[in-house]
Amino acid sequence: ESLIESARIDGAGEFRTFFKIVIPLALPGLATVALFNSVTIWNDYWVPLVFITKASLYNLQYSMYIALLNVQYIAENSGRMSNSAVTSQLPVETIRMAMCIIGIGPIVLAYPFFQKYFIKGLTIGAVKG
């Protein structure tokens, strides 16, 4: 409030106050909402499950979900299919954890670009009194 009043006293109009004061103050919040929204969209597997029927259009999470179901099926039914020791000892948990790393990789790579807005948001709103 005091920053906006200071800008008006200095002669800034509505648009200048908005673009020079309000937007920089709101940028950390907008970056946070953008990060949360992108994580939500990235982790979404329900929409492809419901709407997409062509396998080439599935997103990464749904493709990994299908692959994990196939690995679990093979591990559970390996005794019936063959007597192979290799298929009976499939590391399902290891495959699941590897898929977690693959799925979270792009988010981990994008986070440092958003982190500067989080740090900036802690300091930009401070009014010296």
Encode the helix/strand succession as letters.
Answer: HHHHHHH
Distance between the termini: 13 Å
Which range best describes the helical content: under 10%, 10-25%, 25-40%, 40-55%, 55-70% or over 70%?
Answer: over 70%
**Structure classification:** mainly alpha
Rg (CA only): 25 Å
Q: Total strand count, please? A: 0
Query: Uncertain regions: pLDDT < 50 for 5+ in a row?
Result: none
The largest sheet is: none
Number of domains: 2
Mean pLDDT: 81
Number of helices: 7
The gross shape turns out to be elongated
Portion of residues in beta strands equals under 5%
Molecular structure report:
By secondary structure, the chain is mainly alpha-helical. The chain has 2 domains: 1-42 and 109-129, no CATH class; 44-90, no CATH class. Helix content is 78%, strand content 0%. The protein has helices spanning 2-9, 14-42, 46-51, 60-76, 78-81, 85-88, 92-124. Helix 1 (2-9) runs antiparallel to helix 2 (14-42), helix 2 packs antiparallel against helix 7 and helix 4 packs antiparallel against helix 7 (92-124). The longest helix is centred in the C-terminal third of the chain and has 33 residues, at 92-124. The chain starts with a helix and ends in a 5-residue tail after the last helix.
Give the helices and strands, then pairings.
Layout: H1 2-9, H2 14-42, H3 46-51, H4 60-76, H5 78-81, H6 85-88, H7 92-124
Helix pairs in contact: 1-2, 2-7, 4-7
